Amino acid sequence: MITGGLDIGAGTVKVALMEDGNKIIAKDFLKTSGKPQRSAETLVNNILKEQGLKRNDIDYLSTTGFSRYLYPERDLQLSDITTNARGAIFIFPNTVTILDVGTQSSRAISVLPKGKVKNFRFTEKCAAGAGRFIERCSKYLQIPMDEMSQIALDAEDPQMISSVCAVLAETEIINLIATEKKINDIVSGVFLSIADRTTTLLKRVGLKPELTLTGGLVKNPGFIQALEKRTKMKVQTDPLGHYAGALGAAILSHRRIQIIEA
Question: What is the 3-state secondary structure (H, E, C) of 99-149?
Answer without folding.
Answer: EEECCCCEEEEEECCCCCEEEEEECCCCCCCCHHHHHHHHHHHCCCHHHHH
